[in-house]
């Protein structure tokens, strides 16, 4: 399926290809690296169930093949990746743990340049360069509020990969066990009550990292007007700007920069 969101069809800037692997869909497209916009439409296939490494790799190849793209490809995955190996697996088959991602994708994508990065890291890179964090100096933190809390830290545009700040203990619980949007829904909290929990977590992140800006992502960021005004932490919090293209854009940026965490 195609989606014409955020495109730059007449762009002539340098390009790379990004693929964002999620729990429900694998979506990708050609990215103008100058503007951070898609060149034409994105293409999406359903994430196979079960989402085994081999099945997902075939899905990624299908997305890339849709565009007849034969250049470098950046790929996001929902997990920690170090040395090219998947260390955790969130919303994806546990068979990914221990998989060498570069060997895997090379089987279906050939000998082209590849970059495989954490999905929150990719979104953070895109938001920092082309979205809500553009032009902000110092430490910029993207936090995605969903079933857990994903995180990305950038220092003057340079990514600190594989931060898992949702698992940081704040008080007596992990941050995501008290301030994810999943907890809000399960508890039936109002936005105002949930914002108090989020503020407590952000206070802790501020004390540790002294960020210049927090960028709030995840589906609940689309309702930012209902909860961001209730936050009491000191650092400014703004909603993510790129929404469903951030992972694709960040993946393309990663392969352009040669990132292989």
UniProtKB/TrEMBL annotation:
Report keywords, A-Z.
Kinase, Transferase
The molecular function terms in GO held by this entry are: kinase activity
InterPro entries listed in its UniProt record: ATPase_NBD, ROK
Q: Which Gene3D superfamilies match?
A: 3.30.420.40
- Listed SUPFAM superfamilies: Actin-like ATPase domain
The record's similarity note reads:
Belongs to the ROK (NagC/XylR) family.
Name the UniProt record assigns to this protein? Polyphosphate glucokinase
Q: Can you name the source organism?
A: Gordonia aichiensis NBRC 108223
Q: What is the lineage of its organism?
A: Bacteria, Bacillati, Actinomycetota, Actinomycetes, Mycobacteriales
């Amino acid at each position: 399926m195609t989606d014409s969101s955020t495109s730059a069809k007449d762009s002539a800037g340098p390009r790379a290809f990004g693929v964002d692997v999620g729990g429900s869909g694998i979506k990708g497209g050609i990215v103008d690296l100058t503007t951070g916009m898609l060149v034409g439409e994105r293409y999406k296939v359903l994430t196979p169930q079960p989402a085994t490494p081999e099945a997902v790799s075939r899905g990624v190849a299908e997305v890339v093949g849709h565009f007849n793209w034969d250049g470098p490809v950046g790929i996001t995955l929902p997990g920690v990746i170090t040395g090219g190996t998947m260390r955790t697996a969130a919303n994806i088959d546990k068979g990914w743990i221990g998989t060498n991602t570069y060997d895997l994708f090379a089987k279906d994508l050939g000998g082209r340049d590849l970059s495989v990065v954490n999905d929150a890291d990719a979104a953070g890179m895109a938001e920092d360069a082309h979205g809500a964090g553009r032009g902000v100096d110092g430490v910029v933190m993207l936090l995605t509020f969903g079933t857990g809390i994903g995180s990305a830290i950038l220092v003057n545009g340079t990514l600190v990969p594989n931060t898992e700040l949702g698992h940081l203990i704040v008080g007596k619980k992990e941050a995501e066990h008290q301030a994810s949007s999943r907890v809000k829904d399960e508890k039936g909290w109002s936005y105002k009550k949930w914002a108090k929990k989020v503020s407590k977590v952000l206070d802790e992140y501020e004390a540790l990292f002294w960020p210049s800006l927090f960028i709030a992502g995840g589906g609940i960021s689309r309702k930012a007007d209902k909860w961001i005004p209730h936050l009491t932490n000191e650092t400014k919090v703004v909603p993510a700007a790129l929404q469903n293209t951030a992972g694709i854009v960040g993946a393309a940026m990663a392969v352009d920069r040669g990132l292989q965490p």
